[in-house]
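Lab notebook page, bench 4
Experiment: in silico fold of construct C2
Operator: M.H.
Input chain length: 364 residues
Purpose: comparison with the prior construct
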Amino acid sequence: MTPPNRQLVNERVQGEEAGPGDVSAMLERGRTLATPELRAAVERLAPPMDTVAAYHFGWIDAEGRPSDSGGGKAVRPALALLSAEVTGGAPETGLPGAVAVELVHNFSLLHDDLMDGDEQRRHRDTVWKVHGPAQAILVGDALFALAGEILLELGTPEAGRATRRLTMATRKLIDGQAQDISYEHRDRVTVEECLEMEGNKTGALLACAASIGAVLGGADDRTADAMEAYGHHLGLAFQAVDDLLGIWGDPRATGKQTWSDLRQRKKSLPVAAALGSEGPAAARLAKLMTEDAKKSQAEFEDFHEAEFAERAALIEEAGGREWTAQEAQRQHATALAALDSVEMPGGVRDQFAALADFVVVRRG
């Protein structure tokens, strides 16, 4: 049974406890297999980049002491390992792809945190806050370079195909970040523009993760494309829930400030959907957003909590919150439908479905 839309954010934030037991096992497998390879990759970096990267991944604290704060849920490595099983191969076949995708993902986080001015990630100060903007840029660049290096070291035709797909996904990811930044200073963004941006920024890399293991295992392009479609729509669903969290999420769960996306003037899906509706709430929101777009960031940062709360209330009144929750469910269903065109072991299909439920709209 699909949970009520109001519960969507809370369920997503609950973490691994909320997912089926096999999802916890998949995520743990992703972490267990990928982490040693990620550590080995980071050790290739010249000092102090190796230490900065280790801090970012949560392996050490700001003073360089060992830490077990972790580096996220490992959804992308889990997808890459699972996709290797689509054609009957061992999950380890997808391990280089899992590591490469995770390196690119963290490259984007390092740069995004700096560009967005985010001071917290996973309940810790971000790299640029601790080690400075220059190190955040350099380490991000280094992780991106390592991703291609690790794949190409395999020296196989499949590795070349996988590298090409990862490179294309990275370019789309960067396109999405550029679109996201450009939208911050526009008073209005359409839902279609927002979906295109989020499909690039989030969907592209999840699409690559869902297919890269299969590619390394020798899957043909038709199979890889179908798995990419699954990952793309899963990414859109995932991002829709993140957009809800970016406005209404509990800072104790998200590790970010209250009204995080509103503080950054992000034109996320709830905002775009609300502005695209009709009625007095949408009109009032549009007026405020037009005024906001003309303000400097310093002026915007002086806003009182009540001003952000007013914007969040108008977005909800105009239907943006409800529409976004429903869009997450629509994209989730489209992701599952993409699996229908791929022949794979039934147990593998079930795990893809369970993972989709876990990261988006856990079913009760």
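Observations: Confidence is low (pLDDT under 50) at residues 1-20. The longest strand covers residues 120-121.
Next step: discuss at group meeting.
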